[in-house]
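Chain A, query sequence.
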Amino acid sequence: MLRKFTVMAICLVLSFIVSVTLVAQESNADLDADYAVPDELVLNYVPAGIEELLFSRNALYRIDYRQVITEVNVLDAPNGNILYHRALAEYYVSLIGIEGDWAQINPGEWIPASSLGPAYYSRLGGILFREGDTMEYPMGWNRRIVFISTAPGVAPREANDNALPKYEMLTFFARIEVDGVEWVQIGVDQWLPADAVNVIEPIEMPETVDSAVWVAVDVANQVVMAYEGDKLVFATLTATGEPWSPTEPGTFHVYAQFDPRLMTRGNPNDTWFYYMEDVPYTFYFNGDRALHGAFWHDNFGVVQSHGCVNMSLTAANWIYRWGRNYMDNRADDEPPMVVFVYDKNLPDWGLIPAETEA
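Chain A, predicted structure.
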């Protein structure tokens, strides 16, 4: 079981660590220079020892993913014989090539090129902690395009030059509530609504974790963190399971790894059906739940999946290479990599007492 006293203390400290907690104000008229931070603490401030992992073109475009946007007959050759029929559903393929009006999606399988649409190549990366958790202030990302306000509670100027692009790496200097709405400060006279951001909240290594490297999946914050012992080395946004198919809390060992792997569920008549060819950077840890890259959406930082831990292709590539290095080189008596899933909004983090494995 977790060291509950320590975990509670960590949660309290990490619920937006601020050197001085700001007190909520009665009205916007009360906001003044007291809310300014030192001049060097500006938007895009990054402490020493921390580095942004930028999107990787190799990870993104190694495989040419496409969405099948119409119902379609799959043929054995261009203008050839019908092999089978695909109904209109959540159906993605990896393209081998296009010849004229025809697209080859697998050896001996062709469909009209006009039936293909683009996949989602998210440019989200992550944050590398070269010296462990060296955050002077909490850090994270905005998960959507948002306009910057000059003070908490003040409506932002909605103009392109005042818009913060999606997935910016941010430092949060303060947090305050105004008129029932929480705000975070990202620079001098620069504030965002707190519901637009996701925060990295490091945790202590749980007693249930027995591997030298492990992955923490923070369901509440929709953040994945990679650890070497008690040292945080990487963090990124994720998209975990919807309430009807959740990413279940617990301590799990990785039991299979693939790159890539076909993933499918149900049949086209089911509302939860999906068919995803060549899902990359995959670690299975709890039944059909896995860590993996996702090319069918760019909606990280919110629940989105059928139960798996979705990451951008860049982030999943980093996790996979890092985790494979441990998995492939560990001694016979060393356990597989652990995936620790928890939800701080649930009693006891929603953890079950015993490990579950496939």
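The chain has three domains: 4-50+134-199, 67-118, 213-350. The CA atoms of residues 190 and 206 lie 36 Å apart.
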